[in-house]
Write a structure and sequence with these properties.
heterodimer, A: alpha/beta, 2 domains, two-stranded parallel sheet, two-stranded parallel ribbon, 11 helices, B: alpha+beta, Cyclin A, domain 1, 5-stranded antiparallel β-sheet, 8 helices, globular
Chain lengths: ~200, ~230
């Protein structure tokens, strides 16, 4: 049976035993607790995730003044909605248009705007995306994500090398004029806020 | 340091492998591995820059082949030993013990202060901006080149931007300098800028894709003005 965390180096049992051994020592030394693990897991499984970024995007699509504030100071605009915190202490939102497409990457590690997108998907942290997204973004978008952009659209890739956290305001899909903010938020995927898919797909 | 973690532009790594409906944590062991960051940060093992450098010092083959959260476990072990909290021989003994007894429960210690710290950290974060009375040497619109040296310790000057010229598009103020804080030094704040590089400048006319640019954040000591 294969698991998503299988590697050629160690079995799942070996990895789990090593982590548990380290955890047991950190608990005994007063550094961590199992209840802190449970709390952090509950936060990032249930509370902080891409549904929060989607709410921000839907509001920006329906409220031009909010959108202006979001582009000018994303951290402050998100704080209006009670959204912010760890790994999003200073956020910058990049607006996609008919002529400009933005996408984010972290070539050196795995920097990602947790308060609006949650913890990153595994592919964002693995070598292939980090290596290729700066060198051949058109190819990555087209071949790996099925998202073909014409050459006339400038692709801007933001490599998150500092503690500034970038994320993408995707274009509002056509034909959504009558939708409510809640219905619009349902169209905003994690991938559209990373910049590897349009909003409204999947 | 020059290492495999500095992946921008590397070839031969295959396709991006995505997984539909991937859970936030893909295995039970990823949960404590993730929680160790906040707990050990509070215990003073590391700041975020030193945390990253501990990962960068992993065996490069293992870095590429292991799970992402195994990187976190590695840096926690590294700094735990430095802090005198983790004895690596004892860690190995316990690993063998839990291999034989995987379901043995962990001690149920309580620490309300740690829970309060976790909640505050998630809500408020840890801002890297630091006030400093340094006058910025560059401004938006300046053409700058990233100095092409290769420091041995932690740095955020990725190899693919070294020696490359671009235009400053953002001047953000002063922030903790990773090249100091990540190497055990003081926070030593420096001005931070965003620089826009064309694909042509980074990858050359034979390779660059049409109409692409990359934005990269740099601290002032990385830069030199280019007329």
């Amino acid at each position: 049976m294969t698991a998503p965390t299988d590697t050629p180096l160690r079995t799942q049992a070996e990895i789990a035993a090593r982590v548990k051994a380290l955890e047991s020592m950190l608990i005994e030394k007063g550094v961590m607790t199992t209840e802190a693990v449970d709390r952090l897991v509950a936060i990032y499984e249930n509370e902080v995730g891409p549904q929060l970024g989607a709410q921000v995007v839907a509001r920006a699509w329906t409220d031009p003044e909010f959108k202006q504030r979001l582009i000018a100071d994303a951290t402050a605009a998100c704080a209006e909605m009670g959204i912010g915190g760890l790994q999003g202490e200073e956020m910058i939102v990049l607006e996609n248009t008919d002529t400009v497409h933005n996408a984010i990457v972290c070539t050196l590690c795995s920097c990602y705007p947790w308060p609006v997108l949650g913890l990153p998907p595994n592919w964002y942290k693995m070598p292939a995306y980090r290596a290729r997204m700066v060198r051949e973004p058109r190819t990555v978008l087209a071949e790996d994500f099925g998202y073909v952009l014409p050459d006339a659209v400038e692709i801007r890739v933001w490599d998150s090398s500092s503690e500034l956290r970038y994320w993408v305001l995707p274009k509002r899909p056509e034909g959504t004029e009558g939708l409510s903010e809640t219905e619009l938020a349902a169209l905003v995927t994690r991938d559209s806020m990373i910049g590897v898919a349009p909003a409204g797909s999947r | 340091m020059n290492g495999v973690f500095d992946l921008g532009g590397t070839d031969g790594l295959g396709p991006v492998v995505t997984l539909e409906n991937e859970p936030v944590f893909r295995a039970e062991w990823e949960k404590p591995a993730f929680a160790m960051f906040a707990s050990c940060f509070r215990a003073g093992f590391f700041g975020v820059d030193a945390f990253r450098h501990g990962i960068e010092k992993m065996d490069p083959a293992e870095y590429l082949l292991s799970n992402y959260y195994e990187h976190w476990v590695h840096t926690v072990e590294h700094y735990g030993e430095k802090a005198g909290v983790i004895d690596l021989d004892e860690l190995e003994r316990r690993t063998q013990h839990y291999l034989a007894n995987p379901d043995e429960p962990l001690a149920d210690r309580r620490d309300p202060d740690l829970l309060a710290f976790v909640d505050a950290a998630v809500t408020h974060g840890a801002d890297a901006r630091r006030e400093a009375d340094k006058v910025p040497q560059y401004k938006v619109g300046d053409r700058v080149t990233v100095i092409a040296d290769s420091p041995h310790g932690h740095t955020r000057r990725a190899r693919y931007v070294r020696g490359r010229t671009g235009e400053i598009t953002g001047a953000h103020g002063t922030y903790i300098y990773p090249d100091s804080a990540g190497n055990g030094g003081p926070e030593a704040p420096e001005h931070l800028y965003t620089v826009r590089f064309t694909g042509l400048e980074l990858w050359g006319p034979q390779t660059a894709e049409p109409n692409t640019v990359t934005y990269f954040d740099v601290w002032e000591p990385y830069l030199t003005l280019t007329p």
